[in-house]
Amino acid sequence: MDRSASLQDYKAGMLLSGVGDALGYRNQLWEYNQSGPVIHKELEELGGLKNITVQLPDWPVSDDTVLHLATAEALATGKEGEELLHEVAFRYVEGMKDMEGRKPGPSSILGVSQLRPGTEGGYRVPYNPEGTGCGAAMRSMCIGLRYPRPEQLSSLVAVAVETGRMTHPHPTGFLGAVAAALFTAYAIQRRPMESWGVGLVKEACPVAKSFVQSQGYAVTETERDWAYFSEKWEWYLEQRGLSNGKGPVIWPEKYGPEERDEAYKSFSLSGWAGRSGHDAPMIALDALLGAGSNWEKLMSRAGFHGGDSDSTAVIACCCWGLLYGLEGVPECNYKKLEYRDRLEKSAEKLYALSH
Ligand SMILES: [Mg+2]
């Protein structure tokens, strides 16, 4: 592909991120609760993906989309610098009031409860060594839509780090936000997917580290806990033959729902696939690499597994929509999605601000 993402692609990216979240969540039934093989069997009983009308009350969006919208709508104001960070913090506080039945994560609840938007430094919270979860990653894709160009990398990283550590001050958590934002920017740039992981580890992570050092906040703790994220990513790239940034991708001989559940667990920090900041984007990339332009394959790999399936799908589907638009996606999957309007409106504003 040689053209960068269009307005329609931006809208598809935001819309499908919400669709992936709602499908992977299935109103609390599928997130974490079932194995990949069981979910695939239940999906078949529902008549397959093409037969699912994603709408309330059975298919609400989860915390991922509520907080992704909060980030997106804050960015869409066009504010920058500290003013933007207060705006994001304000919208996270508001977003947490819309969590009935959406299962927000513990670090998100704790972090947001400590935010004081509007007061000096009120977008920073105390360092949290437990803040390794994927809660920062799952709401950060839109940052790549705001800062899509290669020369905007430092802005993308700064906003992802600062908004990420509003709830996830541990680098394994907030670097997940950098990864999710970076991958959408790469999707918009049409950068070859085989090089996304190397770009994260070799280009974006060093920028993030210098940024952290320049800010003088929790530098010692952050440096202490820094290494795991990049080390695990380097391990993954090695597994897939992507350390050179070129491929070809190496796949396990058999890689169905059962084998993927095992593989995704091996990506994880402590056996919960997709739960952390490093492995939610990792599963998303793995799914994107394997699915190509096939929507059903994408959802099968990114959204229908035994781990944190809504958060891996929300990231993968945002990138997929930016790359392929709505082509091949059954209308019933997105037409009546909760918050469709807000997702598409924020996409329009982010497109206008970045073009
Ligand atoms: Mg969720």
Automatic annotation (TrEMBL):
GO terms for molecular function: ADP-ribosylarginine hydrolase activity; magnesium ion binding. Keywords: Hydrolase, Magnesium, Metal-binding. The gene is adprh. Coiled coil: none annotated. Mg(2+) binds at residues 62-64, 308, 310-311. Belongs to the ADP-ribosylglycohydrolase family. It comes from Chanos chanos (Milkfish). InterPro entries: ADP-ribosylarg_hydro, ADP-ribosylglycohydrolase, Ribosyl_crysJ1, Ribosyl_crysJ1_sf. Pfam families: ADP_ribosyl_GH. GO terms for biological process: protein de-ADP-ribosylation. Binds 2 magnesium ions per subunit. It comes from the Eukaryota. Its cofactor is Mg(2+). This is ADP-ribosylarginine hydrolase.
